[in-house]
């Protein structure tokens, strides 16, 4: 059975984006890309909200073809083209995309079914609105939070719609030279 793992950048005060969705405060570099790339490369299912999916879709399918594409761009672009993508959206048409399933209704039940038939993990990339929906249904099994050394003061929170206290088991911490800290936790159900 597959687990849903939330990969998200977060400010020190718990926001996934600024008040207008801005993410210009997120720090990424080769060290972080290599760390994430190794982990992502072992996964064959990606989960997105519509906004994040459209942002990814506008870049990753052709990123490797661009002049001067970085090693990370080439590797992640190849992964993105082949991974099974699942998108939570009431407006997207799946037939317009490759390797993509759109869930437009009954998402909680359909994601539970997806978890049952998935071998390995399902990575939820960013997508705070989708994360809030999954939090409301206790569908997130693990967190990989990349805490950036910045305080936003306001914005879109990472944690919203949590129905009850969640006990977490620490799985590890990685401190990057930039000051970003990746904290990994597993949700302890029951």
Automatic annotation (TrEMBL):
A family per Pfam: RibD_C
Q: Which residues form the Bacterial bifunctional deaminase-reductase C-terminal domain?
A: 4-181
What is one process in the GO biological process aspect for this record?
riboflavin biosynthetic process
InterPro entries xref list:
DHFR-like_dom_sf, RibDG_C, Riboflavin_Biosynth_HTPR
Gene Ontology terms, MF aspect: 5-amino-6-(5-phosphoribosylamino)uracil reductase activity
Q: What is this protein called?
A: Dihydrofolate reductase
């Amino acid at each position: 059975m597959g687990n849903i793992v939330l990969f998200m950048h977060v400010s020190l005060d718990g926001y996934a984006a600024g008040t207008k969705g801005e993410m210009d405060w997120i720090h990424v570099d080769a060290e972080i890309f290599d760390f994430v790339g190794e982990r992502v490369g072992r996964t064959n299912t990606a989960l997105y909200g519509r906004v994040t999916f459209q942002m990814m879709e506008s870049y990753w399918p052709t990123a490797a073809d661009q002049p001067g594409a970085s090693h990370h761009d080439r590797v992640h672009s190849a992964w993105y083209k082949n991974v099974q993508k699942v998108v939570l959206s009431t407006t997207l048409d799946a037939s317009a995309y490759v390797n993509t399933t759109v869930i437009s209704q009954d998402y909680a039940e359909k994601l539970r079914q997806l978890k049952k038939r998935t071998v390995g993990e399902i990575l939820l990339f960013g997508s705070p609105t989708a994360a809030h929906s999954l939090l409301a249904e206790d569908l997130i099994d693990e967190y990989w939070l990349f805490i950036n050394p910045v305080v936003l003061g306001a914005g879109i929170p990472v944690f919203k719609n949590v129905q009850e206290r969640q006990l977490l088991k620490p799985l590890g911490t990685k401190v990057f030279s930039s000051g970003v800290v990746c904290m990994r936790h597993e949700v302890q159900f029951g």
